[in-house]
Amino acid sequence: MAVDNVNDSTSTSPAGKPPVLVSFEDGIAWVALNRPEKRNAINPDIVHAMLRILDELESDDRCKVLVLTGSGDSFSAGMDLREYFRATDNDPKTRAKLFRANGDWQWRQLRFYSKPTIAMVNGWCFGGAFTPLVSCDLAIAAEEATFGLSEINWGIIPAGVVSRAVAALVRERDAMYYVMTGENFNGRRAAEIGLVNEAVPLARLRERTRELARVLMKKNPLVLRQAKIAYRMAAEMTWEQAADYLIAKVDQGTFRDAENGRNTAMSQFLDEKSFKPGLDSYRR
Ligand code: COA
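Above: inputs. Below: predicted complex with coenzyme A.
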């Protein structure tokens, strides 16, 4: 199927350009922050567009895997210093609403999104952009990408939930180093410290992301949804709570799975001997 560009006009910014581009390709929804001339700095237009787009893609069958990326040479230069911060300095009500809405898409929605999500970091990635990056289930970066917790450089701490998000993935020594120095690092270093799964040359980035999305699309979508959400939930529970919750989720999954995956797979392995669960997915 050819790439189908779907940029709905309701998301058009005052400048007449959609703040976020969505295109579909064989089950992948490519979602690109689209202010390349501002290095995809996240302004209110992007916040509101992302809220709506995430909401719509949850129930859009063309989206089986969501890839979050940026137009041009930037993933995102973080929060927009002019439109997100300075413009709301003297307007606490607008600021509170905007900050809340930004948290809604960047982590409340994304961390528990019902479909698999991959962050594809194609270039600059600073400050507030770390939150959606961490909130995606998986992340692949260009080796050439430039990351930075630049807040310290311009006189604030990594807030929103950037500090919390970084702490979820990165070892404390590395996290503190970048929080306190604001030093830049590249995609390879981002992979080394666990911020992304892997780094590949920029020229390979889209194809590698496609390959990963295709692997995910072969899985049973209900079980995939359960697996990612259960992992995040269980990580914050005691062992006893996790054991109880996880077995309840297994039962729920078995009960609700329209394709009866567990039994199909068992029969293919134990009776037909036609597949090995250790080596691949069952035939759906
Ligand atoms: N907020 C507001 N505007 C931003 C921005 C941000 N976070 N990041 C980039 N821009 C704007 C620039 O002001 C410039 O606008 P102008 O053309 O009207 O002058 C435009 O985007 C291009 O940026 P420029 O700095 O000229 O591009 P560059 O390629 O030389 O540098 C960066 C790219 C990302 C290194 C640089 O723009 C930068 O340091 N941005 C801020 C990153 C940051 O600290 N973000 C953390 C926010 S929490």
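The first strand starts at residue 4 and ends at 5.
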